[in-house]
Amino acid sequence: MRYSETGFNLEVDLTRGNIERVATDPKLTELYLGGLGTSTKILWDRVPPDVEPFSPDNLLIFSTGLLVGTPAVGCNRTIVSTISPQTRLMAYSMMGGFWAPELKHAGYDKLILRGKSSKLVYLWINDDKVEIRDAAHLQGKGATETAELIRAELKEPNAQVSAIGLAGENKVYFASIEQGRSSASRGGIGAVMGDKGVKAIAVRGTKDVYVARPDEFIELCNEVLRYIKVRKDNPIPGVMPILAGLGSPQEMAVHDEKWHTENFAWGNSRTRRKGFWTEDVAKQWTESMESMRTRLISCHNCPMKCGATISVPGLPTYMMKCFSKLTYTMAAMSNLDFGLRIAQRATEYGVDGFSAPQVMAFALELYEAGILTDNDFPGMPSETEERFYWLLDRIVRREGIGDVLANGTHWAAEEIGNGAEEYAHNNIKKHEQLPLKLGMLNPIYFLMYSTGEKINITQIEGNFPQAPFPTREEREEFVKDWVQVPDEKIKEYFLNWELRGEYSIPQYPGAEATCEIVEWQETMHYIDDATGMCAGLSSFPLKPPYHIHNLPTLISAATGIDIDEDELKQVARRNRNLVRAVNIRRGMRRKDEKPPEDHWKRRFPELETELLDTYYRFKGWNQQGIPTEESLHELSLDYVAEDFLSRGILTKGEGAPSEEASVKGSKN
């Protein structure tokens, strides 16, 4: 018997209409655990590097994590993987809610879509019965509306539905897949779903998921719950309110947005907005949020209420979480009432809540600069808020200038030309990031932004504080119960971290320390993405209930696989290097590894070169960021090394570069 997983994937060939239930190799579970790890192995094996995102040969994989469907608190993530139309690299996005547990209970660890349907369809997975159904009547419908119509049509109110809106149907490069209280939105995976002709996937599962040692496993889960209760009553002092507790950023529960509104440069705001957050603004925002926030909500098997139902007068109720509360508001430099209203329409259309508002603000910047003119915006309203609605409608329909903007700021700027490239300033690897405008370079974030395969900072950062605490006493108090650190020296790094500019971390005790901190945060995220754990209880918050010291025991009790801390770290490194290998094979190199151009006011090129050189050495990569043959062998990724050698990406016998070679290579 397979524990904690079903041992079967569901494969659907949309071109032929063929449906298969495919047994999986348990050895792959030991090597990659599940979720992102095993999905990446499938993409490596079956999607060659010359396959285009909108090719029938591209795969769209919906994966449950290894612990999804078990009583593990907060394990509910759907990991959606494909090749991105925006970056042309591997995209993977995490979706909360209830969909993945339902798929696991239906008897499948993954749903793999290949080919393309000749007409719009939706899938109905009802335990062992799987159907491809006509969706012509759903064409043009909103994502939430589609889910409601499908449940009514199936007469199955408990079906969990993932759907695309008009943006996905029209292959907008930043289209999302919406699923009730969560979405998979980064990288344009909704566009790939639309390209395959799939409007929605409905699933209902009634089967059991077994664990290897139930009594031990339940006690471990209860320990997590007890810890969550303690943390709820004891938020961490001295950090911003949304990070003081557990869960994904608690944007729905808190009202203090002084830090965000004055330090983030959302959309077309290029300067800090000191003094914006007045008592009047705070009162207005609080009133808007409390009048429209119907209730706080959780995902499957989780006590954290990170999301909320939003009821805007005159509009259908929808669900929201995290920074979507702010992105549209700040892009238009408007109030929260506007932000909550336009987010409802954007959710129905199915667009990414980070990219979409930036694309619209980018368009208006080009208009103000004279790069785009009235001829490009026939009939556009004069008022800012109405302009955002007008642009959103045209982008998702790919009408007029909206057809250009629908490809995101990088590709739009390239097509528009005439200096537009300077305004596409917030991309990494052609992908819009959180639109920040901060002061001094942060070395840890420099590395995470530059090198993270997720290409999304909120899925890279985590357990190490974002800024030093002002006094030594505060830092000493913080480390007293900091059991989550993988090594005691991390505590020393934090204790000696002072507010003294760009040299605080890398020069104490060196850039190597920065790499160790980044490695820790990456490791936690890759474990979460393999197990299906919500980052809000593991890799994202300070002092989470799940950490490197108890996760091996939890995984072992669930699966029956003996695994210790070192072995779990090795799995995380293996998965991280395999994702990188997919991207390296698709052409990604060192030149692509850089943060947004004006993310920090003060930049230090020599320091940034040193950090990147040191990080590459630390990871066992050469100076192009390519894992060496030796490193790949240590991770049991010899098949990757063989492929790289055959393509000339690596040279036989190439090992980890010396420090001297690294410095020399960085100057070339």
UniProtKB/TrEMBL annotation:
Its cofactor is [4Fe-4S] cluster; tungstopterin. InterPro entries: Ald_Fedxn_OxRdtase_dom2, Ald_Fedxn_OxRdtase_dom3, Ald_Fedxn_OxRdtase_N, Ald_Fedxn_OxRdtase_N_sf, OxRdtase_Ald_Fedxn_C, Tungsten_al_ferr_oxy-like_C, W-dependent_AOR. Keywords: 4Fe-4S, Iron, Iron-sulfur, Metal-binding, Oxidoreductase. Pfam families: AFOR_C, AFOR_N. Residues 8-207 form the Aldehyde ferredoxin oxidoreductase N-terminal domain. Gene3D superfamilies: Aldehyde Ferredoxin Oxidoreductase Protein, subunit A, domain 2, Aldehyde Ferredoxin Oxidoreductase Protein, subunit A, domain 3, Aldehyde ferredoxin oxidoreductase, N-terminal domain. Belongs to the AOR/FOR family. PANTHER family: ALDEHYDE FERREDOXIN OXIDOREDUCTASE (PTHR30038), TUNGSTEN-CONTAINING GLYCERALDEHYDE-3-PHOSPHATE:FERREDOXIN OXIDOREDUCTASE (PTHR30038:SF7). This is Aldehyde ferredoxin oxidoreductase N-terminal domain-containing protein. It comes from Eiseniibacteriota bacterium. The lineage of its organism: Bacteria, Candidatus Eiseniibacteriota.
